[in-house]
Amino acid sequence: MKEKRGPWYLFTGLAIGLVAGILYSWLVSPVQFMDTDPASLHPDFRAEYRALIAQAYLADGDLGRAQMRLALLRDENPAAALEAQSKQAQEASRPDREVQALAALAAGLAQSQSLGTPFSPQLSSTPAGGETPQELAPTATPKQDQMILTPTPTPLATFTPRPSATPRAVLKAFFTLSDRQEVCDPELPQGLLQIEVLDSAGKPVAGVRAVMTWDGGQNAFYTGLNPRISPGYADFQMEPGRVYSLKVGEGGETITDLTPQKCQVGATSTGAETPSPAADGSYWGGLRLRFVQK
Amino acid sequence: MARSKRYLWFMVSILVGLAFGVIYGWVINPVQYVDTPPSNLRADYKADYALMVAEIYAADGDLTLASYRLTRLGDETPLRSVQQAIITGQQLGYSEYDIGLLGKLAEALQALTPTPGGTP
User: Are residues B55 and B8 in the same domain?
Assistant: First the structure.
């Protein structure tokens, strides 16, 4: 008697082979991506890469090049990513240079996006290293999703950043107080110190370090962390009853006796008419200072 | 006879399935690496990374920090990373200024870590 069997054993073999093949290729010997792009970096390394781009920007002042580099990270909103990282860096007490650079680049991007004009951090009139500005023909950027399965002996992409021809940032200029206003605006946080730093041409300057000192304490903050207000804007939360001194820039003058003042309802410097948070009709106002480069 | 033939075809079907599985896992739907280190970057991105380090070094002169940053590229030494970046940069047509920046960083690293026999 002859046993009649269908081709099911073939399908069984095929299924066993398929499963074994997938397991082998996914688990035992997965594809090795040796030639990845910056967008695939681990989030920690992406943050490092972003910080590196910002510091290179601070060094060469070349916003176009920085934008090309940022594009490689494929952030949805590069300016927002920079802004968020600069705030995180400040909170995490990262090195000054890093915070300054992130803030300056965030402000530069925001300004160039809003005005459609190139923006430089605080600049000197001398090109970097005394080099003559050069122009290279634009080069193609690498394909963003290009993944190569095996290492290649020669580089395939043609990402060639432009030369560093723009003037170099100088963040050690001398800033002096040009305007001081007491602000009574109940819509603002109480005791808010707002500063704006401008260069000698009246242009906002990002990445300038300001140091607030009080009895038993000190805190540094930077312009440019809120580029939507102004690249030269920074603020600090003062505590009522505490007297502060402020120094803007490395060689700026020190402004003393800064402290929140009491404001009364209705006595708003901005015309705002909102109820006072205090029962006696008073609240703590803030200060607005403007510094100009000398 | 028929039984051994069936075994043969069974093995063949396994091999065919295996081939399809490997093609699927390696080519059609490979494992996606999303959290890679800078050492896995393609040569041109590594070169640009080294260039950024060189630009920053030219501005701040902090060789220790530059050296530390270059270790991320996973080469034998930071100097090797810069040398490789110079080669890649020349192949990709970097400007003389950029090659010069990399060259200055390489010189500084070479002075920092002299190699046995005097060869890099």
Answer: no
Per the listing, tokens 């909102």 go with A274
* B114 and B91 part of one domain: yes
ipTM over 0.90: no
B6: containing domain: 1-32
- Decide if A14 touches B, using CB distance below 8 A: yes
Q: Do B42 and B28 fall within a single domain?
A: no
Locate all alpha helices (DSSP H) within chain A, ordered by sequence: 8-23, 43-60, 63-73, 78-91, 96-115
Q: What digits encode the pLDDT tens for the residues A228-268? A: 788 788 888 899 889 999 988 877 788 989 999 888 876 55
Q: Do A41 and B13 touch (CB under 8 A)?
A: no
B58 and B73 in a single domain? The answer is yes
My answer on whether B15 and B46 are in the same domain is no
